[in-house]
């Protein structure tokens, strides 16, 4: 009872007590607890107050109240006008931004490779080393004392101008400090008479800690045994960490002056041991630097040593042929290892699929390859192509049947060969199968898994007793998509100036007005970094009458009009006389009038040139690397595409409006230096047959003589109006045929031409 009475009282009184307590607490929190000193003299009190206020630095007192003195001070306050002074702004500091994000973030590449070669071996062993490792590694530089006048193609060679080996080693390390010490974590040096298994070296440094002071290779005692420690023998190569080189950097000059040695690897070893106290090791963190000493005139394919199979480097290599044999030997080892890993993974997948919900059905064929693409609608169904050994029934030009040739023929032959090899592998030694003929062949490209094939083969089967019979066997094959590889490309920008070359003949004059109008709006008014140049082509008769009747007088007047309209624009023009208009002859003249580093765009007067395409021309044309031949979109003949209709103002990129003209090779983007180099290479052929200049075009010239990447792709930003081309029969048969085909295919689509024929036949019948 007492407890229940206490609870009832607490319920009624509790909120009041809590409210009073909360009020007292808040009031105490707002009280200023700063102590103020009491002085008998008011003046001292004022000084103390000033000092106290200064300590508070203008902070408001929660309980402060204005006093009489404060009011008087406010009344005595007189405003003062402060004159305005303009703040002198210092010029903004230019912020330096690195060209690449990796540079700004301090990211480094993993491995740098330096190959030590000489003038006498760079064209033999040096080339062999470059061919066997350069496509596996990011940076390979060849160091030599003296070099020949001509450097092998595709090799980056640094020569020091001296044949002293120790001096060259000093210069090699100094070159690393000057150019690459901040770009790589590991530095690998090897002689050109050693074979390096590039992938294994990459894997080794990929598992090493980059902050270690590591000197790794094949340890050797110093000659004489007087010096303690071990150096890395240069024949088998050695790895140096960036951390070790940075510690060695301040003492490199001391090593050059104080250490005497006849061997560069021994000199470097003494330098590292003396100033960093780091010895050569062949093992670190459980990883071994395996090497193998090759016997004289030994054949790697006949070697059975386990040490050779594990080796990272093999030394000595006597000649390039032995280097290539070693490369083949290690490539076959890695290939077999890959096949074994694939078979192991396939077996594991089969074992796991047994306990899956769908059982063995969950393991798609081939095991480990992505399942086939499943279309979600009839528009996504993948098309099968039918072929035989001689013909294919799906052609690029839309024909129902065409001859199987080129890469397609090689593809079909390869697939049949693989099918027969796999069948014999499966049924031997009980049966032996021989191909009689391919009855049916089907293939399709599956974007998820690769190229799929279905073959119906007529085979002759021979058993162990020699009896044979003919059977038909259906086989399925898949050529899977391999791992995507990013190909490194040189750095290019969109700031390069383009020289646009427009050749003009008598028949092209009527199209100049439209071309200049479009080009002015896309380039002149936007200050595009491009120079337009016209090439006036006269035949001999027109050239004789140029003073009395210049066929290009109207065009020259239009050029003057645009130059007056745009004062900052100059449109140069060049006149040439020729009987046979040849691209190469024209470019010979233009090339001599421009700097070597000029970027050309050889265009057509019917093309609509805009900034979007010009930027792609800049990006796809790479000096000493690649030339670009765009495939423009050409309108169909308006009379065919729009019969009894008004032609639209703008034409969309649709199948009924036009097509990408794959027969045209007129437009091209390339650098003048690449043109001059390619032109020099065909001098010998021109001396034997001068007509080659008229029978070849720029595309064929680059394809045959340059050695550059010839990049050809559809270009939606390059639009060309319909025009009938006058095909010159004096050009090569191939060029003339391409011109005729371009005219025929540019008339209209198949459905439009069929409709015209249908209407014509109906009209004739009535």
TrEMBL record:
Organism placement in taxonomy: Eukaryota, Metazoa, Chordata, Craniata, Vertebrata
One annotated GO molecular function is: glucuronosyl-N-acetylgalactosaminyl-proteoglycan 4-beta-N-acetylgalactosaminyltransferase activity
Q: What is its EC number?
A: 2.4.1.-
Keyword line: Golgi apparatus, Membrane, Signal-anchor, Transferase, Transmembrane, Transmembrane helix
| Location(s) in or outside the cell | Golgi apparatus, Golgi stack membrane
The cross-references to InterPro entries, in alphabetical order and at most eight, read: Chond_GalNAc, CS_glycosyltransferase
Q: Which domain of life is it from?
A: Eukaryota
State what protein this is by name.
Answer: Hexosyltransferase
Provide the Gene Ontology terms for cellular component.
Golgi cisterna membrane
Keyword check for Membrane, yes or no. Answer: yes
Question: Mainly localized where?
Answer: Golgi
UniProt lists the family membership as follows: Belongs to the chondroitin N-acetylgalactosaminyltransferase family.
Q: How does it sit in the membrane?
A: Single-pass type II membrane protein
Pfam families membership: CHGN
Q: Which top EC class applies here?
A: transferase
Which segments cross the bilayer?
Answer: 12-33
């Amino acid at each position: 009872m007492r407890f229940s009475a206490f609870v009832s009282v607490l319920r009624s009184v509790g909120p009041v007590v809590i409210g009073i307590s909360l009020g007292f607490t808040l009031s105490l929190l707002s009280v200023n607890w700063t102590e103020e000193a009491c002085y008998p003299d008011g003046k001292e009190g004022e000084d103390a107050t000033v000092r106290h206020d200064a300590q508070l630095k203008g902070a408001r007192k929660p309980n402060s109240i204005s006093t009489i003195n404060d009011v008087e001070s406010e009344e005595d306050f007189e405003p003062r006008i402060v004159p305005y002074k303009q703040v002198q702004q210092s010029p903004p500091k230019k912020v330096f931004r690195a060209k690449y994000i990796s540079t700004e973030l301090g990211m480094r590449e993993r491995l740098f490779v330096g190959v030590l070669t000489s003038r006498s071996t760079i064209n033999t062993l040096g080339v062999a080393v470059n061919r066997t490792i350069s496509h596996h590694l990011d940076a390979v530089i060849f160091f030599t004392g003296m070099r020949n006048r001509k450097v092998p193609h595709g090799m980056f060679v640094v020569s020091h101008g001296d044949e002293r080996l120790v001096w060259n080693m000093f210069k090699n390390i100094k070159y690393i400090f000057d150019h690459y010490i901040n770009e790589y974590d590991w530095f690998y040096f090897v002689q050109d008479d050693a074979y390096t298994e590039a992938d294994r070296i990459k894997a080794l440094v990929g598992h090493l800690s980059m902050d270690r002071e590591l000197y790794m290779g094949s340890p050797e005692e110093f000659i004489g045994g007087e010096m303690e420690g071990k150096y890395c023998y240069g024949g088998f190569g050695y790895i140096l960490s960036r951390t070790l080189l940075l510690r060695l950097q301040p003492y490199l000059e001391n090593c050059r002056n104080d250490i005497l040695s006849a061997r560069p690897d021994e000199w470097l070893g003494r330098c590292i041991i003396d100033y960093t106290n780091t010895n050569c090791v062949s093992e670190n963190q459980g990883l071994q630097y395996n090497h193998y000493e090759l016997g004289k005139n030994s054949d790697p394919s006949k070697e059975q040593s386990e040490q050779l199979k594990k080796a990272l480097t093999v030394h000595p290599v006597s000649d390039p042929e032995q280097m290539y044999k070693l490369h083949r030997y290690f490539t076959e080892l890695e290939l077999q290892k890959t096949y074994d890993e694939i078979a192991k993974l396939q077996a594991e997948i089969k074992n796991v699929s047994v306990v899956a919900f769908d059982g063995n059905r969950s393991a798609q064929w081939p095991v480990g390859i992505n399942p086939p693409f499943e279309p979600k609608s009839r528009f996504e169904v993948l098309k099968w192509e039918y072929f035989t050994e001689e013909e294919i029934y799906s052609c690029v030009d839309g024909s129902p049947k065409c001859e199987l040739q080129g890469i397609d023929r090689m593809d079909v032959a390869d697939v049949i060969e693989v099918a027969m090899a796999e069948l014999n592998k499966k049924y031997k030694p009980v049966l032996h199968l021989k191909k009689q003929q391919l009855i049916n062949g089907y293939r399709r490209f599956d974007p998820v898994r690769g190229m799929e094939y279905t073959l119906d083969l007529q085979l002759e089967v021979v058993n162990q007793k020699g009896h044979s019979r003919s059977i038909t066997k259906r086989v399925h094959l898949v050529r899977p998509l391999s791992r995507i590889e990013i190909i490194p490309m040189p750095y290019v920008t969109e700031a390069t100036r383009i020289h646009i070359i427009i050749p003009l003949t008598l028949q092209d004059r009527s199209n100049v007005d439209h071309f200049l109008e479009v080009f002015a709006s896309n380039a002149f008014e936007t200050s595009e970094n491009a120079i337009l140049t016209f090439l006036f082509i006269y035949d001999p008769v027109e050239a004789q009458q140029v003073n009395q009747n210049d066929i290009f007088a109207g065009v020259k007047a239009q050029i003057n009009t645009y130059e007056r309209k745009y004062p900052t624009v100059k449109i140069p023009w060049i006149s040439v006389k020729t009987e046979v208009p040849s691209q190469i002859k024209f470019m010979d003249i233009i090339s001599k009038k421009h700097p070597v580093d000029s970027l050309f765009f050889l265009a057509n007067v019917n093309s609509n040139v805009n900034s979007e395409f010009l930027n792609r021309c800049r990006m796809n044309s790479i000096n000493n690397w690649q030339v670009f031949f765009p495939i423009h979109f050409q309108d169909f003949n308006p009379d065919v595409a729009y019969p009894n209709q008004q032609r639209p103002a703008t034409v969309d990129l649709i199948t009924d409006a036009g097509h990408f003209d794959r027969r045209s090779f007129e437009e091209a983007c390339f650098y003048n230096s690449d043109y001059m180099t390619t032109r020099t290479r065909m001098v010998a052929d021109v001396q034997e047959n001068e007509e080659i200049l008229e029978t070849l075009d720029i595309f064929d010239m680059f394809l045959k003589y340059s050695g550059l990447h010839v990049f050809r792709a559809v270009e939606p930003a390059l639009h060309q109006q319909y025009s009938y081309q006058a095909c010159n029969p004096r050009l090569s048969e191939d060029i003339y045929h391409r011109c005729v085909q371009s005219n025929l295919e540019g008339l209209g689509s198949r459905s439009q031409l069929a409709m015209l024929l249908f209407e014509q036949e109906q009209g004739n019948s009535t």
